[in-house]
Amino acid sequence: MFSMIDLTSVLQWWGVFLVIGIAFAPLTSMIFSNFFDRGYIFAKILGIATVSYIVSVVGILHIVPFSAISSWLILIIASLATLLFKPVRTSFLGIRKAWGFALFEELLFFTVLLGWSLIRAHQPDIHGLEKYMDTG
Question: What are the tens digits of pLDDT across the range 87-135?
């Protein structure tokens, strides 16, 4: 199974994804206002895409160095920017009605993350991604 260090790493990643999802939930609740859960499941995707794009652009342009601190700072700035829009604040209230469904989505995400981490921990084969370059 997992060692305690591996489980801690998975929990840290899940915590980061949870923070990103909560930070971008107001924006997705405005974009996906017709959805039952107000698009909570898409908050992680939108947040990861937005933050990683901004971090890569400002890193390439040498505006800020690429580091964990700059990534967290950009996440905080982006999440504060989503709260500036008035429709976002009013549409975020709809998530409170569907909190059970959002909790189910979060548990489903955690289960899949834990399962995939378990699969990758027990399959150290060299195939996929950049592992071909590791053998070179």
Answer: 655 555 556 666 778 788 889 999 999 998 888 777 766 666 665 566 6
Nearest-angstrom CA–CA distance, 69 and 72: 5
Confidence grade of residue 45 (pLDDT, cut at 50, 70, 90): very high
CA 67 to chain centre: 17
3-state secondary structure the chain: CCCHHHHHHHHHHHHHHHHHHHHHHHHHHHHCCCCCCCCHHHHHHHHHHHHHHHHHHHHHCCCCCCCHHHHHHHHHHHHHHHCCCHHHHHHCHHHHHCHHHHHHHHHHHHHHHHHHHHHHHCCCCCCCCCHHHHHC
- Mean pLDDT on 66-94: 77
Q: Could you give the CA distance from residue 102 to residue 41 in angstroms, rounded to a whole number?
A: 8
- Inter-CA distances, 65 with 42, 47, 55, 75, Å: 28, 20, 9, 15
How many whole angstroms separate alpha carbon 63 and alpha carbon 31? Answer: 30
Rounded-to-integer distance, Cα 25 and Cα 82, Å: 9
